[in-house]
């Protein structure tokens, strides 16, 4: 699982689909294949169910998938059919300037012939938002997640004799945002604890304490010039790793870039700068690298969106012989409303993982295509196919993989 100082859970396998939620709107609209496209068709819009002042939204999906390399091995690939199902529930209540929301989800994965791969995942998140005025917001959130590592992650288990690694991830985030006008300001503080559930993985348990500040100055229209600073402290549960290294470290840095306010043809942000990793172990050298963070959405037409997603930064590593890891990730996505009830998404992504001081570098590419056919406001059918391939200086870490799935989704 990729663990970064600024994005703690991102890019499983290589890059997870962008989740560009339509703000704080309570109404839902199908589908999920192209979330960056606007939803303004009343035929498919779903209003929440109210129980007193509480707005409730429900969603579930089920699909069948075939994976031709379930253990992500370089040779002697093993394929299997997989059944996946998930359920999600959201509860929201608002009074005056205060809004509270609770979201919960559970997911199961069952393999036809390799039950050792079966997993159960869950996530619960609570959010409290206070809007002091139209342009000023305070928020506090807490979450707990039972996360499942993908076999294609850079440091995932590869042995067919063991099931996928699972982790309990607990997080708290406090944020302040001022938007609109000539100046923008965003402040955030967070603490995230990663706890691998198996005792054999105790050396992977650690907590990250971090914060960031971002200032934007309007330079014209919806465009802002931005500067940001970030810092985090990585505190491992064990004093030293199995190879007797103290992996605790302080990471800090700064970036400059641009941001486009929502509502126009172009929105999102892109920034670049430097990061500095200062390890506490006296035998390790501090290092400086390029830091990139960005997600831009370009909508040249109402039914079309192009998404560019990029990041580069320091990552916690557990591989013996590596003193750290730097990941560079890039993805381009094209979303298209083919007709009023047929949506598509095509994406291509790349990740480079540089294991510092180990002489090992890995490059992963993946292509993915999705289609979703909306039957009515409550039900849609979807299909997905993806191909991933990784090259590495270690032949045992290389693999290629094809996955395809079909399923249906329901919302109420």
Report what the structure shows.
The protein has 412 residues and is mainly β. It is built from no helices and 21 strands. It has an 18-stranded antiparallel beta barrel. Strands 1-2 form a two-stranded antiparallel sheet. The two termini are 32 Å apart. The N terminus is likely disordered.
Concise summary:
With 412 residues, the protein is mainly β. 0% of the residues lie in helices and 63% in strands.
Features:
412 residues, two-stranded antiparallel ribbon, mainly beta
Largest sheet: 18 strands, antiparallel, barrel
Which structural class fits the helix and strand makeup? mainly beta
Distance between the termini: 32 Å
Question: Tally of extended strands?
Answer: 21
Residue-averaged pLDDT = 89
Strand content: over 45%
Number of contiguous helices: 0
Q: Write down the Rg.
A: 22 Å
Question: From N to C, what is the helix and strand string?
Answer: EEEEEEEEEEEEEEEEEEEEE
Task: Present the secondary structure layout.
Layout: E1 28-29, E2 45-46, E3 49-51, E4 54-67, E5 80-95, E6 98-111, E7 119-133, E8 136-148, E9 166-178, E10 183-196, E11 206-220, E12 223-236, E13 249-260, E14 266-279, E15 287-301, E16 304-315, E17 324-339, E18 342-356, E19 360-374, E20 379-392, E21 399-411
